[in-house]
Specification:
binds zinc ion; alpha/beta; eight-stranded parallel beta barrel; 17% strand
Length: 276
């Protein structure tokens, strides 16, 4: 067990974890139970005045940990690659507007071309948006996704690939998001977490659990303690490597979304304090 304090000070919840709630309900309900870290998914910003969102966040003393999500760079279609750049530039503007220091990149893949070509296009895409990141100070984190998503969601499937890419790009604004759901199975995880932190590339840490059996590859994530991931051990590796950021609860779950979200938030708190 790591030296981490077992309190709520480093707990962050992703707005998509409580998907039935809009941004106002997330902010009010999280802060009411002592959760002040929030990662904002862009769907809750649709049709919102971002200055008002920022004022709301400030009124409730919320700390924005990151904005989800940018990425989806690769495509066989150049027009689609260009529109992905446009969308990522909008995400950077949104992040700056709501005070998010970081954007999580779900990097993308296109099953009509090789993973190698998709990875080249991801690198190219990150390099194209880097000037905008620099001018706003918004950081970008490459999130490796479990290999089951290699066909359509991400050609970056291991933390090693993410570390390699971040080191090749070599910018203090480009790092890696470690999500236990995607990486728990990797026998190089501990070593690659250390490598990532040693290069100052460890930007974010996401937690949830892997249900056994998993019934849906998108929306059957477990609450910490529900499944088989050694979450607190991995958290220990992350903290021993020097990470001092938030532990972000990111759970996509049709099962939990169908329940009372206030009761669910209490379960998240308890699972965080005892199983994370
Ligand atoms: Zn994640």
């Amino acid at each position: 067990m790591a030296s981490s304090m077992k309190d709520l000070s480093k707990l962050c919840v992703h707005t998509l974890t409580t998907k039935p709630w809009g941004i106002e309900a997330c902010v009010k309900n999280y802060s009411e139970v002592g959760i002040y870290g929030i990662t904002i998914w862009r769907n809750v910003l649709e049709n919102k005045n971002l200055n008002e969102v920022r004022a709301l966040l400030d009124d409730y003393s919320m700390e924005v940990v990151s904005l989800c999500r940018g990425g989806f760079f690769p495509s066989v279609d150049k027009g689609k690659r260009d529109s992905a750049i446009e969308d990522n530039l909008i995400a950077i503007e949104q992040a700056a507007a709501v005070g998010a220091p970081l954007i999580v990149l779900v990097c993308g893949a296109d099953g009509r071309q090789s993973l190698e070509i998709s990875r080249e296009q991801i690198t190219e895409g990150i390099l194209r948006i880097l000037p905008a990141a620099k001018s706003t100070g918004v950081k970008l984190s490459i999130e490796p996704l479990h290999p089951m998503y290699a066909g359509d969601r991400s050609a970056i499937n291991t933390i090693k690939q993410a570390n390699d890419m971040a080191e090749m790009i070599n910018s203090d604004l480009v790092g890696v998001a470690v999500d236990v759901y995607h990486l728990w199975w990797d026998d190089t995880l501990k070593a690659e977490i250390k490598r990532c932190a040693d290069h100052d590339h460890l930007f974010a840490f996401h937690v949830c659990d892997w249900n056994v059996p998993t019934t849906d590859f998108l929306n059957d994530r477990g609450l910490m303690g529900d499944g088989c991931i050694n979450i607190s051990e991995i958290r220990g590796w992350v903290e021993d490597a020097g990470f001092k950021g938030f532990n972000e609860v990111e759970i996509f779950s049709d099962k939990y979304w169908a329940t009372d979200q206030k009761l669910y938030l209490e379960k998240i708190k308890q699972a965080y304090l005892t199983k994370t």
